[in-house]
Design brief:
mainly alpha; 6 helices
């Protein structure tokens, strides 16, 4: 009789651990898929920005006598930005993506600065529309990055908290990488007005 009771207790513990492990595994899979979905949203918004940049470049190319070196620079930065593949569990690939996107944004900023010297271009409706759309896209990118970081935080809590960390280790789930701000953005910009 005592052997049967011991056997039932052991069997009960095994069943409880099995269902607990299944629940933990499913929870980790859901969180991992949520992180991947949020990252896809980030990439979608970056793609929207790239498409807008391409459209602006085409409008500017149509403007006579525009500085070709500036256009070449943005085309090269775009090619670099779209060639980076990201693994959300690898901070280095995420950093490479961020650096490429920063390069594209910087090149585009220089393009807009040069465009200021072309009054005919600034008055075209297409160019004005693009500027408004780009501002909205930058806001979308910011929201998507925040959503991604929230999803990574929730996922990492499950991966690192006890007893989830045991099952995460068994099933091969690793801590996800956060999207970080570009270096130097914590410092206020140095704005100088050359008023004479």
């Amino acid at each position: 009789m005592k052997k049967n009771t011991t056997l039932f207790v052991i069997l009960g513990i095994i069943v409880v651990l099995f269902f607990w492990g299944c629940g933990s595994y499913n929870s980790l899979v859901k969180s991992d898929q949520n992180v991947k979905t949020k990252w896809s949203d980030v990439e979608t918004n970056y793609q929207r920005r790239t498409n807008l940049y391409n459209s602006v470049v085409k409008v500017i190319e149509g403007s006579a006598n525009f500085e070709k070196s500036t256009l070449t620079e943005i085309i090269q930065a775009r090619a670099k930005a779209t060639s980076v593949t990201v693994n959300t569990n690898d901070p280095k690939s995420l950093e490479a993506f961020q650096n490429a996107q920063s390069g594209l944004q910087s090149a585009f900023g220089r393009l807009l600065a040069v465009a200021e010297n072309y009054p005919d271009l600034k008055t075209t409706g297409a160019f004005s529309d693009f500027q408004a759309q780009i501002e909205g896209t930058e806001n979308r990118i910011n929201v998507a990055r925040q959503d991604y970081n929230n999803a990574v935080r929730n996922y990492n809590i499950k991966v690192k908290s006890f007893p989830g960390n045991i099952f995460a280790g068994i099933f091969g789930f690793h801590e996800g990488a956060f999207f970080k701000a570009d270096q130097g953005t914590q410092n206020p910009p140095d704005i100088q007005f050359n008023i004479k």
